Amino acid sequence: MYDIPFLDLPPMNGASGTVRLPGSKSISNRVLLLAGLAQGTTDVHDLLDSDDTRVMLAALGALGCGLQRQGRVLQVTGLGGRLSVHEARLFLGNAGTAMRPLAAALAVLATLQGGRFELSGVPRMHERPIGDLVQALRPLGCAIDELGNPGYPPLRLSGQPGGRLTLDAPIRVRGDVSSQFLTALLMALPLASGGQPVVVEVDGELVSKPYIDITLNLLARFGIAVQREGWARFTIPQGSHYRTPGSIHVEGDASSASYFIALGAIAAHGGAPVRIEGVGSDSIQGDIAFVEAARAMGAQVKSGPGWLEVHRGRWPLAGIDRDCNAIPDAAMTLAVMALYADSPTRLTGIASWRVKETDRIAAMASELRKVGAGVVEGADFIEVTPPVRWQPAVIRTYDDHRMAMCLSLAAFNGLATGAAGQPVRILEPQCVAKTFPEYFETLFGVASTDPADVPVITIDGPTASGKGTLAASVAAALGFELLDSGALYRATGLAAQADGVPLDDEAGVARLAQWLDLRFGHGPDSGRTWLRGREITDELRLESTGLLASRVAAMPAVRAALHGLQLAFRQAPGLVADGRDMGTVVFPEAALKVFLTAGPAQRAERRHKQLIEKGFQASIADLRADLEARDERDRSRSVAPCKPAADALLLDNSELGIEDSVQQVLGWWQARRPFSAPSS
Ligand code: DC
């Protein structure tokens, strides 16, 4: 997860390999609510873990549902249609799939059994309409107060014990704004259908019908057999009761699949396809129909149960003119594929984009223009003309996961032009957490980049100059990979010691370096290191290990042996490398080179402080003598002596705190990036 202000995507030029999709958001939140309302315990497999499911889980927990995690399975024990908590305030973030159905279910339950529930969300949630649902529920006798603007959350749902619902006449709901209102009613009304059938009639042309199919499919799994007449009339049979299916599997998210289908169509032009696991030909999700639209643009797609494989077919892609009413979310991906076509693409039937996480028509138009596309937008359509000249763009994401994921695909622009690619800056990339927290990591896992296009920042300097801390902080701020090259020499020293290879046997030590089985931890394990499967995190940092390292680092054969390993760290989205010769020898073409020049007195003091904090005894004078001896060896050795590259920027951090040093380096970096305007 990149929880940083922006993520710079280097130009990427190919894709192949397998991605496993996170669970579908639409299925996950429906399943959670149905399991939460049903009698009994449901084992939910492969649930999506994201912002939207987290707010639903928190709400169910607050309502008294049992929630227990067993590895990849979540056990939900439902209320069996009986409220156990009668008052609650539920915060639902920006999750429409939680707000609408919970509002309907709690309105029904509060009316029948008594209760008082307040539902709210983030400010954008309070701009997303819910009035049609409120209008549908009030005639049944539900007491619903709109606590902010009429027609929008927050809402208060209340009732007295023993209340009644008027269900004789068909319940009417508008279907032309969002299908979630109908879904909400279909999931809530089985709670009230004990004594009579309940009929729901849709006014206006129903949008996003495939989402209603998902709802009906899942209702059936939980024991409710809704009868459907066209898309206008739905009957919940008398005596319907929620029953758990015992266990249910959440399929991969078909909307999330769209990014990787598009990726295959654009960038799988070598041998292997992009293979997508978790969703396939047997999907119950409407967005699987995206496959057809992608094929129309040129994608070659093979599929089977639970998988898809995508290759580039026609290239450039073909522009299309298509009604996307049935695939509103995945259709955004078509708007980005349109950048790679040889004619304009017109997507119609997308009025619902305007009431999603953001006004997606406006947002898409504005961001596609930034990369150079021509865009015409209307109330319910968008038309995209591919760029003549691609620009390095700073993409706003509007707190909308799909904007971030879609626009990341603009980083393959080099494939469209055949010339050098332009990078793409994605602002607030962590918004992908709404449905796909690991999206960028997954993308980098299958996308390929010319190493020359992966930006490198080198931070060199003498022992204890603070480069390790500085490099780690700069890497974290940019979401870049980190190479602590000193650790490679240190680990080589430890390996030599462990194997009893004498330090005058240069060839022997170099052989160890060549086959160094070293692993750096990522994510929760970041900062930890293993050599040959054994953790060496603490040993690596010992002064004695540093001395060992400075001796092996003086051997040309060892430096040569570690060269390739260091180059392999150059991976998307970028690399921060620290050491002695990062800027001079290993990455001489680095885009920014920093050399730290703190004097030996300050460095000895810093090292002393670090050791004391860790509970070690040390004398400043001894430390300084050691430092100077190592400096001398590092500086005077014949290969890759420690010195600034001719084009390095010198940073005297003797008096600077770490945060100031980080800001200085980030400032230099910012000035060298091609992105001109910040955000607009
Ligand atoms: O940065 P450090 O203290 O972890 O480095 C340990 C030793 O490795 C140091 O004496 C110099 C050597 N080294 C090197 O020669 N080249 C590098 N790129 C990194 C470290």
Low-confidence runs: none
The first-level CATH class name of the largest domain: Alpha Beta
Q: What is the percentage of strand-forming residues?
A: 15-25%
Helix-residue proportion? 25-40%
Number of strands: 33
The strand line-up of the biggest sheet is 27-31-26-32-33
- Count the domains: 3
Radius of gyration from the alpha-carbon trace, in angstroms: 29 Å
* Average pLDDT: 95
- The DSSP helix count reads 23
Could you name the CATH topology of the largest domain? UDP-n-acetylglucosamine1-carboxyvinyl-transferase, Chain
Gross morphology = elongated
Main beta sheet strand tally, sense and closure: 5 strands, parallel
Q: What molecules are bound to this protein?
A: 2'-deoxycytidine-5'-monophosphate
CATH homologous superfamily (4th level) name of the largest domain: Enolpyruvate transferase domain
Explain this structure to me?
The chain is of the alpha/beta class. It has three domains: 6-22 and 253-446, UDP-n-acetylglucosamine1-carboxyvinyl-transferase, Chain, CATH 3.65.10; 25-249, Enolpyruvate transferase domain (UDP-n-acetylglucosamine1-carboxyvinyl-transferase, Chain), CATH 3.65.10; 452-672, Rossmann fold, CATH 3.40.50.300. It contains 23 helices and 33 strands. Strands 27-31-26-32-33 form a five-stranded parallel β-sheet. The chain is elongated, with a radius of gyration of 29 Å. The model has no long low-confidence stretch (mean pLDDT 95). 2'-deoxycytidine-5'-monophosphate binds at residues 463, 485-486, 489-490, 546, 549-550, 553, 579-582, 630, 634.
